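User: quick one, sequence for these tokens?
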């Protein structure tokens, strides 16, 4: 492992360089570039921004960990993402672009005419975002611990402070966010290619055993918190639940709505979704290759409870000495850039949502909203026993699941069914929020569910999705008078392509 002084200095350099570069780029770009939907941008630029926000340190560290722990059988789980992108392209991208809204909360209020429903949707988005931010904090703590030899809480503090500087300083313009995707891709692809070449040239006696049973992860004693390791794929129900969470979680990600609204037209929105799928598809082989190599040369880290650090340990296992240190630094710096950029994007989005829907709006309230967006997750890490020992993947799965069973059905039904009403959506969203909270508490051993419900927390998404969808549909059918009077005009606007002349006054097609 590299010298901790060098590692700490490099992490400090990244912590300074990212907000400075983002702020400089933002000042040169102008205030209009701060919002994803402020002005039209190309499909490739929008796709790079979304890909950069999705291709976080959690994504590429976590993908390698899943392959390390579960073997090659885990790779096909990514088909859930493919299903999600197909749904976005065929059912969501074009009508959502024509609606002209900028967020799930905006869509709920525009489609249903209800401020109350807007607030409930905002609560779903904020809770899911907080879970994603917990994962970013865990990744920051891991990097500081492994590269600098410092306590994890110091990484949390640095991430909190630097993210506030980036967001409150107006950093993170569109071009800068897009450039960060290519930086992260380079920081991962180069080590993957070099280490794969070293492994091949070393004339291995056997290929890594990718079909073996899942490796056993260490369970920290004493805190009683379950689920500290990677996602469990040991049952068909668990695999199905993760697939549905990935597919519909992608549909409900708020970043997509903003980026689709920034597209020049409905066709450009579809191209943006396809470009995101292509960019992420090009990026994902690198962490899978690294997980494949780690299963051969670093499988002992799983039993030691250090699976998350596998990518930082692997270079020295395959290439001991200074060259291995260089690759470790490259991976670590790419992860650090990813943590900072993704945290800034999440903080900005959540801060705006909290400000508009819970604090009454205004520039002064936005600062408070940003502090709450970053502060609540770090308080959870510091005060809730056992959370600090979670794997970086542990909070991501419930975040996807929450989005999948709340925002996604509201969005799909709102786009395609004229009978949806505000009471139906409100009941469905509250059901989804309450159900996922109970499942998460049960998974963390904070409560025990009775008899037939005992297995629900292990695979909650399919039954919760059915329950939420049924609640939205049945309550909507029972409250037809709450249907917006302009619903036909809304559906016409979303689903009927307009000629070029009409594009001047209506969203472009």
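Assistant:
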């Amino acid at each position: 492992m590299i010298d901790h002084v060098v590692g700490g200095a490099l992490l400090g350099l990244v912590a300074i360089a990212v907000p400075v570069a983002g702020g400089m780029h933002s000042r040169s770009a102008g205030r209009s570039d701060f919002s994803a939907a402020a002005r039209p941008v190309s499909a490739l630029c929008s796709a790079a921004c979304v890909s950069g926000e999705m291709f976080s340190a959690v994504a590429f560290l976590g993908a390698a960990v899943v392959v390390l722990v579960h073997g090659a059988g885990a790779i096909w789980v990514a088909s859930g993402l493919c299903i999600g992108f197909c749904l976005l392209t065929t059912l969501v991208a074009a009508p959502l672009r024509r609606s002209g809204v900028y967020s799930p909360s905006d869509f709920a209020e525009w489609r249903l005419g209800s401020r109350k429903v807007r607030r409930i949707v905002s609560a779903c988005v904020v809770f899911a975002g907080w879970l994603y931010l917990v994962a970013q904090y865990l990744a920051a703590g891991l990097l500081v611990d492994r590269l600098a030899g410092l306590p994890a809480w110091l990484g949390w503090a640095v991430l909190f402070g630097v993210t506030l500087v980036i967001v409150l300083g107006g950093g993170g313009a569109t071009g800068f966010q897009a450039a960060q995707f290519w930086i992260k891709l380079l920081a991962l692809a180069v080590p993957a290619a070099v280490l794969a070449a070293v492994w091949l040239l070393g004339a291995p006696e056997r290929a890594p055993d990718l079909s073996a049973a899942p490796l056993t992860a260490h369970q920290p004693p004493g805190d009683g918190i379950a689920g500290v390791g990677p996602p469990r794929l040991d049952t068909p129900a668990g695999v199905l639940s993760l697939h549905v969470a990935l597919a519909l979680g992608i549909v409900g990600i708020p970043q997509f709505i903003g980026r689709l609204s920034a597209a020049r037209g409905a066709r450009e929105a579809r191209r943006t979704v396809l470009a995101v799928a292509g960019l992420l598809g090009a990026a994902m082989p690198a962490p899978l290759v690294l997980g494949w190599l780690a299963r051969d040369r670093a499988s002992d880290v799983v039993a030691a409870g250090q699976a998350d650090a596998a990518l930082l340990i692997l270079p020295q296992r395959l290439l001991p000495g200074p060259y291995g240190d260089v690759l470790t630094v490259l991976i670590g710096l790419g992860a650090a850039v990813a943590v900072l950029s993704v945290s800034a994007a999440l903080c900005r989005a959540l801060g705006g949502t909290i400000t508009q829907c819970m604090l009454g709006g205004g520039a002064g309230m936005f600062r408070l909203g940003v502090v709450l967006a970053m502060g609540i997750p770090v308080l959870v890490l510091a005060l809730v026993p056992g959370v600090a020992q979670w794997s970086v993947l542990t909070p991501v799965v419930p975040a996807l699941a929450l989005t999948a069973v709340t925002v996604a059905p509201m969005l799909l039904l709102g786009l395609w069914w004229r009978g949806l009403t505000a009471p139906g959506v409100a009941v469905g969203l509250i059901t989804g929020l309450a159900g996922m909270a109970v499942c998460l508490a049960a998974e963390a051993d904070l409560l025990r569910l009775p008899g037939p419900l005992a297995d629900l927390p292990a695979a909650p998404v399919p039954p919760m999705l059915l329950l939420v969808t049924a609640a939205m549909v049945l309550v909507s059918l029972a409250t037809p008078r709450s249907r917006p009077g302009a619903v036909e005009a809304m559906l016409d606007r979303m689903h009927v392509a307009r000629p070029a002349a009409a594009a001047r006054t209506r969203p472009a097609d």
